[in-house]
């Protein structure tokens, strides 16, 4: 991949399908299994209805609405990551359109994947200022990838694994778009989306779960970094956004052992584990074991990659 830099930007190359069509490196090189990106950004007009009005389709010029344009560009970065590093053609692996709605509802303080598309609020301007931030966009799209890879039920530990996969690939997309290796990265998810008066740096920190914010309005970042502090709760689907701190931190620690880029060995292992786990009820232990299998398949039994993966899981209190 000597000329990665030339392809990690817009990825726009002229093709028979039309000038400016967004295609992956595979098609540019004439590969048979071409991946073609099809982004569709809608304006929800601050209403709840989805998808709203189509305002920017694939290949269309920037609109000047920064929510629209960030969603469009961000989805391109996510598409490129999955296509070029994981040979995956869009969310379902078969080139499905990436449908997004911005300006969803009024003062809406969240973003989500609803099973078919992404939606992003503008935030209330106090607690949150926007949700069209690259790690958040990649997080939401990655929920779609989880769904189309067999799924992880959005409750308890399997739900926290679903959340963690979305955070891992959210951070990874951001790092790749900025050309950051694992030591240069800040490991924050949702940096810059908090309101101006909120005491915090991001929505979550994979490097130091529990430290992303501490604020009168938002409270204290509730994420644990070790099984000793696992939160048993009925809220948030059994703490899916809370206990995800544990597998998030395991991924971070593993990256610290390996160095390089997150989408290389660690990302390859996490992606393969998702494709192979075939257990929507997976626990943290099931997932850790699946990543260990993937590390052996990819790098060999007894490899440094396998041994350090075991150490990373053990450090967060999961014995494999
Ligand atoms: N932003 C949240 C997420 O993607 C929405 C939710 O709770 N499902 O995890
Ligand atoms: Zn999520």
UniProtKB/TrEMBL annotation:
GO terms for molecular function: metal ion binding; metalloendopeptidase activity. GO terms for cellular component: extracellular region. It is found in: Secreted. Keywords: Hydrolase, Metal-binding, Metalloprotease, Protease, Secreted, Zinc. Residues 50-147 form the Peptidase M4 domain. Residues 151-318 form the Peptidase M4 C-terminal domain. Its cofactor is Zn(2+). Pfam families: Peptidase_M4 (PF01447), Peptidase_M4_C (PF02868). It is an enzyme of class 3 (hydrolase). GO terms for biological process: proteolysis. SUPFAM superfamilies: Metalloproteases ('zincins'), catalytic domain (SSF55486). Its EC number is 3.4.24.-. The active site is at 140, 241 (proton donor). Extracellular zinc metalloprotease. Belongs to the peptidase M4 family. This is Neutral metalloproteinase. It comes from Cognatiyoonia koreensis.
């Amino acid at each position: 991949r000597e000329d990665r830099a030339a392809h990690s930007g817009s990825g726009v190359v002229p093709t028979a399908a039309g000038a400016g069509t967004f295609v992956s490196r595979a098609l540019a090189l004439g590969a048979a299994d071409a991946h073609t990106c099809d982004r569709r950004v809608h304006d929800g007009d601050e209403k709840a209805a989805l998808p709203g009005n189509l305002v920017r389709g694939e290949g269309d010029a920037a609109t000047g609405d920064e929510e629209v344009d960030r969603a469009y560009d961000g989805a391109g970065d996510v598409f490129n990551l999955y296509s070029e590093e994981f040979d995956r053609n869009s969310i379902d692996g078969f080139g499905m359109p990436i449908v997004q709605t911005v300006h969803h509802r009024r003062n809406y303080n969240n973003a989500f994947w609803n099973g078919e598309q992404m939606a992003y609020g503008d935030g209330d301007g106090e607690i949150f200022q926007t949700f069209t931030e690259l790690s958040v966009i990649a997080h939401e799209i990655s929920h779609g990838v989880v769904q189309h890879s067999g799924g992880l039920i959005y409750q308890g530990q399997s739900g926290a694994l679903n959340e963690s996969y979305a955070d891992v690939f959210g951070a990874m997309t951001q790092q790749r778009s900025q050309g950051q290796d694992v030591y240069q990265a800040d490991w924050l998810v949702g940096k810059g989306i908090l309101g101006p008066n909120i005491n915090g740096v991001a929505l979550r920190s994979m490097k130091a779960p529990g430290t992303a914010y501490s604020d009168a309005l938002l409270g204290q970042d509730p994420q644990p970094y070790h099984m000793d502090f696992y939160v048993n709760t009925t809220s948030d689907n059994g703490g899916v956004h809370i206990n995800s701190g544990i597998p998030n931190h395991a991924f971070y620690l593993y990256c610290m052992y390996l160095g390089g880029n997150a989408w290389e060995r660690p990302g390859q292992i996490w992606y393969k584990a998702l494709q192979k786990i075939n257990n929507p009820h997976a626990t943290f232990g099931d997932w850790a074991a699946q990543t260990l299998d993937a590390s052996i398949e990819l790098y060999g039994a007894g490899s440094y990659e396998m041994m350090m993966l075991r150490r990373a899981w053990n450090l967060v209190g999961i014995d494999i």
